Amino acid sequence: MRTADQNIFHQIFEDHWDEFKECYEWYNTEYYEEVVQKMLGCGKEEGGYSEYRCPHCGKDLRRVCFTCKSCFCLSCSKVYTDNFVVQVSRVLQPGLKYRHTILTVPEDGRIHFYRDRHNGGLLSALMRCGYECLEDVVSTALRQQVKIGIIVVVQTHGRSGKYNPHLHIIMTSGGINESTGKWVELGYFPYEMIHKKWQYHLSKMLRQMVLTDEMKSLIGRWYKKYQKGFVAYVTKGRVPERCRGIAKYLAKYVASPPIAVSRIIRYTGQEVTYWYKDHETKKKEVVTVDVLTFIGRMVQHILPKGFQRIRYYGLQATKTFKKWIEVIKKGLLLAGRVIRGVYEVVRGKRYRERYKEISGRDPMICRFCGHEMALWKVWHPKYGTIYDEWENLKAGKYEPLVNDKNTRERHSLRSPSGGIQLPLFPVRV
């Protein structure tokens, strides 16, 4: 069930999405249409559903509507966050400590990423560039070349909803010297060094990727304007040591909509008013924009199809870590670090578990007899009925039951609208 805020968000797109596509033809593609329509149909029966019935008494029925599972969908944002935590928890390494870093792009350079947003090539290069920059910083601080581990997440929006590409990075506090084959611990992080290093690496990447005189001129102006380097934030101290804490720490920055619907103050049909907290002034700013501008600020953050928002580099890459695992363990022990087994892997939650957490009731237990419900039907808007247990029963696909007198007889059935007695197996949901 959607909240009032989510209904407003859906209403804005239902009212003006077609008009928006006519005005901005580059969004009138099959891909953007698919993302928006999935969001609009999320949690509705016309978007497809699984139907469950009680195989014992046949009285209870529940339809579980399909969800789009998109980070663009506000109804699915909680599930998206949970899945993000699960994914990150699986790649965190035992005994290692991590730091959180944010790398930004100067305001006058963001337009180049915006122009490339349908392709994603620059965003991919930006993520790789962030890894190379931080590995350079750590190697310089340690005065030896090391390979570090990094989890990079790209975010394209700022607090106002405008296009503002930047990186959130979780990095290992140390690395492997591949020449000596030893783990080297980073005690002090050189906060002051990262600004100029990031300026150098980002400028170098853009000069190679954007082959225009405009870019050459822009980079020249940057070195005059930002003599102390680009803006970068490093969280002083370490992020939480437990994997669930690390993953949720990172998720709160990236698994969120461009503009939280709770900040929508008013929708008049033609204008949208919302508020945000300015990053620099720390003050609450109220903005009113026409509805097409609002939609544009939302859909511009839809990443290209197949784009990987989360990427792993260096020691965080699975094959690389397996190669150096014993060296890392030995180095951590020499540094006085206690390795307590492995990180807890956060298990993904299914619909049934999430429902129980929210309501305190098991949705797959019959309300009339208390038995577990079973899958009865699956319907998809594109493919039609994929599975129908009633048709299976009518076709006689199940063996007859044996009664107490050792005579074979068909088990009596009633229509799906009434009570039924079926020897169905429990379905995992």
Describe the fold and architecture.
- This protein has 429 residues and is α+β, with helices and mostly antiparallel strands.
- Helices cover 36% and strands 20% of the residues.
- It has a domain at 77-258 and 301-334: Replication Protein E1, Chain: A (3-Layer(aba) Sandwich).
- It is built from twelve helices and 16 strands.
- A five-stranded antiparallel sheet has the order 8-3-5-4-12, with helices on both faces. A four-stranded antiparallel sheet has the order 2-1-13-14. It has a three-stranded antiparallel sheet with strand order 9-10-11.
- A hairpin with a 6-residue loop joins strand 10 and strand 11 (284-290).
- Helix 1 crosses helix 9.
- It is globular, with a radius of gyration of 27 Å.
- The two termini are 19 Å apart.
- The relative contact order is 0.17.
